[in-house]
Amino acid sequence: MEALRLEGVGKRYGRKPVLQGVSLQVAPGEVYALAGPNGSGKTTLIRLVTGLAFPTEGRAFLLGEDVHQSPSARRHLGAVVEAPAAFYPYLTGRENLRLQAYLAGVREESRIGEVLARLRLLSVADQKVGSYSLGQRQRLGLAAAILHRPKVLVLDEPTSGLDPEGVELVHGLLRELSREGVAVLLSTHHLQEVSQYAHKVGILGGGRLLDEVALNGREVYRLEAHPPEGALALLKTLPQVAQARLQGGAILFEGNPEAALQALLQEGYRVKALYPERFDLLTYYQERVKHA
Amino acid sequence: MLRLFVFELYKLFRLRSVALGLLFAFLLPFLWALAPGLKEVYGLVLASGWQVVSLSLLAGMEFLFPFLVVMAASESLGSEVAQGTLKTLLLRPLPRSLLLLSKLFATLLYPFVLLGASFLGSLLAGLPHGLGPFFGGTGLGAGGFAGVGLLTPGEALKELLRAHLLAGAVLVPLAALALLYGTLFLSTTASALAAVATLLLMRLLVAFPALTPFLLTTYLDLHLRPEAAGLGLSLLLIYTLGFAFLAALLFERKDL
């Protein structure tokens, strides 16, 4: 069963649709990154997934339970929906976590120390949150989110406001949680960073899920052929080739390179070069959003 | 649930409007005890410390106490929205109605704490005038401040306690009303203004005599009319339950 599942989720305010028909699934242990320009609906989607907002169409499930019908579905959920995360400024970090632990049904006091240590917050744990830096609050937010060992983690720009060490700490934590079987859905503008460990990227634009890009085991080939437009048109007709596109005078495609080469030579195209290339998520994203 | 309620109480008493309100309620009686124009305004020459207590209640219930209660109830939700902690709470597997109920119980307790602070401050401010038997009245019983003869401390205390409890009951639906607007607007200022505007509007409805017995504002002076407590308290309870029910209904499907 998917850890998180959205079925045609949409949200409109009055007549204005903010999100339309978004369907996606995140399996246990999978990291799903949501990317999209500002105003594309990422935060709205996160609010819908976490049950903070209600969809005007569709449904959201956490381990098979509808998050909007049953508040108890959120027992599986850990989330940070604001950057930096919000806490009571007059309580210490530890006291804030103690309150969160009570609300989440966590009885072990030692778990609070564990997550504080994991997020390198022990030295400020007994200081009032009002005196925390933005980065410390953001890390405390993550500590609160993982406090009850959730099976689904939903994070809105988790590295926002963090210094490079903090960013690395968060990425390391997410990798580790993913290996432990936690499903992670996060929104981000830092595609290069998350592409190191995300399994799938969903590209949002204009309130729609424009594309889903699977990053695992993805092999992309760079082809330099003349004339490139004709070669691209030919590749698009081949069943062994997927996602062919022009980029800076060359063609990037996925699929079978031998079949592609054979077809091009048969049709008389001049092939200058064909070699595997690391998938450039950022460029792909930029093109996908531009042509949306 | 109990721990949640205790935490809501803790948060409530950390609110600026609540801290200021309690301070004002405690200190204002000292001002009243020293006010030179009491005779001109209330026709009263202080004969006893007990009269300071009733004077503080009467003056406070004119506007200050209702306003403070409305502000506190509005801020109890509005401040959570402003600092983002409401979302943090609602991310937990907690029914929204339970959270709102805890907030409601905490805000419903506040009027009594506020009146308690006023009562305590008034007793202290009234000490120089003495708290023994006196010829006169508390302004809350027979004969007003002039009284009908000798009033013992026990009788005065009884009248004052009854009046404070009734005043507390009067303030309870106002807290529930402000919380209802709080769930609607998710803003301290907007909900406080809406609650005050509703009360002002209800006061205007006295022009419809058929409605008057059922208006919330008809019973805002219930502490002066204990004989109307039967119908008054029942209506105040109905208003409180009605506002609370509507608030829970709204909050259950409110986007955050």
UniProtKB/TrEMBL annotation, chain A:
PANTHER family, A to Z: ABC TRANSPORTER, ATP-BINDING PROTEIN
SMART domains in the cross-refs: AAA
MF (Gene Ontology): ATP binding; ATP hydrolysis activity
Keyword Ribosomal protein: no
Similarity comment text for this entry: Belongs to the ABC transporter superfamily.
Coiled-coil spans in chain: none
InterPro entries: AAA+_ATPase, ABC_transporter-like_ATP-bd, ABC_transporter-like_CS, P-loop_NTPase
Keyword GTP-binding: no
A Pfam family that the UniProt record links to this protein: ABC_tran
Domain ABC transporter: 4-233
Taxonomic lineage of the native organism: Bacteria, Thermotogati, Deinococcota, Deinococci, Thermales
Keywords: ATP-binding, Nucleotide-binding, Transport
Signal peptide: none
Organism of this sequence: Thermus brockianus
Protein name (record): ABC transporter ATP-binding protein
Automatic annotation (TrEMBL), chain B:
Pfam families named among the record's database cross-references: ABC2_membrane_4 (PF12730)
High-level lineage: Bacteria, Thermotogati, Deinococcota, Deinococci, Thermales
Annotated TM spans: 12-35, 98-125, 131-151, 163-186, 192-216, 228-251
Name of this protein: ABC transporter permease
Source organism per UniProt: Thermus brockianus
UniProt keywords, alphabetically: Membrane, Transmembrane, Transmembrane helix
Domain of life, source organism: Bacteria
